[in-house]
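Instructor's aside before we start: the two examples that follow are unrelated to each other. I chose them only because their records fit on one page, so don't look for a connection. First example below.
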Amino acid sequence: MIVLRSPFSNSSAIDNFFDELTDPVQLPYWRDADHSSFNFSDTVGEIINNESKFSVQVDVSHFKPEDLKIQLDGRELKIEGCQESKSEHGYSKRSFSRMILLPEDADLTAVKSAISNDGKLQIEASKKANTSRIIPINFVAKH
């Protein structure tokens, strides 16, 4: 008779399993994300649009930096993420795409991005300097 035992048949094996999973080794943010959730990057985070800058934040913690793409076409800012994985058990693909129209006074040549340790993508553009000015009217007397 063959007896099959689950590695989780006693609580110490389960405890050891979870201890290994939660080892405090510092992993990159995308390795530590909850990949069981499919509700990711559904919304754009904080948006700032004031007289000095336009800034937007997106949670991309489920994607590695190399899985992300930011493209600027005119004032249209497109943020995309695509991740594929294949294993002996199947294939999975997750992706998202967000399009944001930048304000007319955003300096399109100054758009920059950065990603934080917790997977928050920050895209920022400074605003163009206000080029309006008051032109004085000079009175010229005719002779």
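Example two begins here.
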Amino acid sequence: EERSMRDRTLLEVKDTDHHIPWKVHFNLGNSSRQVTQCRNSIQGKIFLTDELGYVCERKDLLVNGCCNVSAPSTRQYICKSCLANGCCSIYEYCVSCCLQPDKQPLLEHFLNRAAKGFQNLFTAVEDHFELCLAKCRTSSQ
């Protein structure tokens, strides 16, 4: 039922003053907030990105959904495969790069120019992570 309610909200235009709650700084290592669960990009066959901006191999994903930051291949805010214009060839790297705090101006510019067809989708996202998932899944910008 919760999923169907959320799907219906994609069909409704929310108010134009909808603001994304930007997370200014993530750092699992020295965060004062104890992270017990992470959302992640789920779909990658080899790589996943968690909501803290870490990219890891699927085998290095912890049971709580977070990447194991101690794994040698885990990296945060990785923009490998991403061009200066924001286009990336690997979805998980796109999400990780998008989560970088200094990308907020680029995301705001993208949202201001988002096609009308995507208006409902991008106003339905609730936070920075959801915005990055949606942007990287639907846009080549």
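The chain has five helices and three strands.
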